[in-house]
Design goal:
Elements (H helix, E strand, L loop, with lengths): L6 E6 L6 H14 L4 E5 L5 H9 L6 H25 L3 E5 L2 H10 L4 H7 L8 E6 L2 H7 L9 H18 L2 E4 L4 H20 L1
Parallel strand pairs: 1-3, 1-4, 2-3, 4-5
């Protein structure tokens, strides 16, 4: 994949931070600027991803969650992400490997095991961390999945903050109005794309 010609952008953050909204708006804006864009997400729209969305309504063991998310990611990379990148597209993805690490580590799984399990993944070119207070985020959640509890989201958010620091994510304050947040995302992405093209 070293010769890929596209760009891989990932939006991360806890449930209710606005990933779906901002990924959709960013995709639309990039397309208006002339970029060929693929908007995708995890769990994916593939067979494993669809199974996972049903599975998340159950109280399954954390290790099973991690294995299913990772299997979906492997398929997602091969079927959608890598082909789009090889065709020169900008891929905008909601959630990626960092969600598995942040969420399943919060469920008590070993961090090193999670990282080794996902050692095959393609590293994104840019990760935007939508940082929001968990007490605000939990009020925005609507899917009734098992992860949408305040005490749990506090642990996940703490894990994301560590990842953001260690992996040098671009952190966005997502607790503000949608328009303000999207404007900052656009500015940071445009600045980054400009530097990448130099």
């Amino acid at each position: 994949m070293e010769n890929k010609s596209g760009k891989f952008i990932v939006l991360e953050g806890i449930d209710g931070c606005g990933k779906s909204t901002h990924a959709r708006l960013l995709t639309k804006w990039l397309a208006s600027k002339g970029f060929s864009v693929l908007h995708t997400k995890e769990p994916s729209r593939g067979p494993i991803g669809l199974l996972l969305r049903q599975y998340l309504k159950l109280n399954a063991p954390p290790r099973v969650d991690a294995l299913l998310f990772t299997a979906d990611r492997a398929e997602h990379l091969e079927r959608e992400i890598k082909p789009a990148l090889n065709n020169g597209m900008v891929v905008v993805c909601e959630r990626y490997v960092y969600s598995t690490i942040a969420y399943q580590a919060a469920q008590g799984l070993n961090l090193n095991w999670l990282k080794k399990l996902n050692s095959f993944v393609l590293k994104p070119d840019l990760v935007l961390f939508l940082d929001i207070r968990p007490d605000i985020a939990v009020k925005r959640t609507t899917t009734n999945e098992k992860f949408e509890e305040l005490s749990f989201l506090k642990k996940v958010n703490a894990n994301f903050k560590k990842l953001a620091k260690n992996e040098q994510f671009l952190t966005i304050n997502a607790g503000r109005g949608k328009k303000v947040v999207q404007e900052e995302i656009r500015k940071k992405v445009l600045d980054w794309l400009t530097k990448e093209s130099l």
